[in-house]
Design brief:
- The protein has ten helices and nine strands.
- The protein has one domain (4-141, 154-184, 234-240): 3-Layer(aba) Sandwich (Rossmann fold).
- α1 (4-11) runs parallel beside α4 (66-73) and α5 (111-121) crosses α8 (161-170).
- With 245 residues, the protein is α/β, with parallel strands linked by helices.
């Protein structure tokens, strides 16, 4: 079991927002000060803070970790960050125009329960975006070569795209679009090595100490190496709560 309150102490070293992803949000949703937004599994609130800074959205989050919520509440523009999870989102039905989650879905024990709750709290015609990775994308992560069991572990943790879409449809959502964002070239940098050493990505925490230490040593020996991984990247799955529902 990962202690996310402990992880919150160094979480912001790696979990920054992505303006590329936020630009995609803005291309689909007319983001402005009238739009109510929910970040499901908001962590330390990096995406919400950036959305408020750029667009003035009415920003809300739900996060089960006390440590993560405490960090989020220290950031400007976040209206309300509540304790909650896939079983209970503590907001009224029909509260939000737009909800999203970024790299969260693999932590959720029941997709059916989660999508039912997200369906409930979205307004009629509201949009949902799930930001995740397919199994094919996980298999192409540039750092897999340092940690032999990592990709298989991650594919067990992550639901693949078909499962996500199926559970969303069962909850009443209609599919809007699937977007694939390519990964830029990545370099073994001091920042990358620090984040690995601090296990700021949850995927490193289940590894045996032997595999983790050996992988970190090998990656450290490759400091400065550039990787290009055109098949890896991010997937955005868009869903809509249809107006008649």
């Amino acid at each position: 079991m990962i202690n996310y309150s402990l992880a919150a102490e160094t979480y912001d070293h790696t979990r920054t927002h992505s303006d590329v992803v936020i630009d995609r949000f803005a291309a689909v949703v007319a983001l402005d000060s009238t739009i109510s937004v929910l970040d499901f599994g908001c962590g330390t609130g990096n995406y919400l803070a950036r959305l408020h800074q750029r667009f003035g959205c009415q920003c809300h989050g739900v996060e089960p970790s006390d440590g993560m919520r405490h960090k989020a509440l220290s950031k400007p523009g976040l209206l309300k960050i509540e304790k909650g999870d896939h079983l209970a989102i503590p907001f009224s039905s029909g509260s939000f125009d737009f909800s999203y989650m970024t790299d969260v879905i693999h932590h959720v024990p029941s997709l059916s329960a989660m999508f039912s709750e997200l369906f409930r709290v979205l307004k009629s015609n509201g949009l949902l975006c799930v930001v995740t990775e397919s199994h094919a994308q996980i298999d192409e992560r540039f750092y897999n070569c340092y940690f032999p069991s990592l990709a298989a572990n991650e594919n067990r943790r992550y639901p693949d795209l078909g499962e996500i879409i199926g559970r969303a449809n069962e909850a009443g959502f209609s599919g809007e679009a699937t977007e694939l964002l390519a990964s830029p070239p990545r370099r073994i940098s001091d920042d990358f090595l620090r984040n690995v050493a601090e296990k700021n990505w949850s995927m490193f925490r289940p590894l045996s100490e032997e595999e983790f230490s050996a992988g970190l040593r090998a990656a450290t020996g490759d400091l400065g190496r550039l990787y290009e991984s055109p098949s890896a990247g991010t997937t955005l799955l868009w869903f809509r709560k249809d107006a008649q529902q």
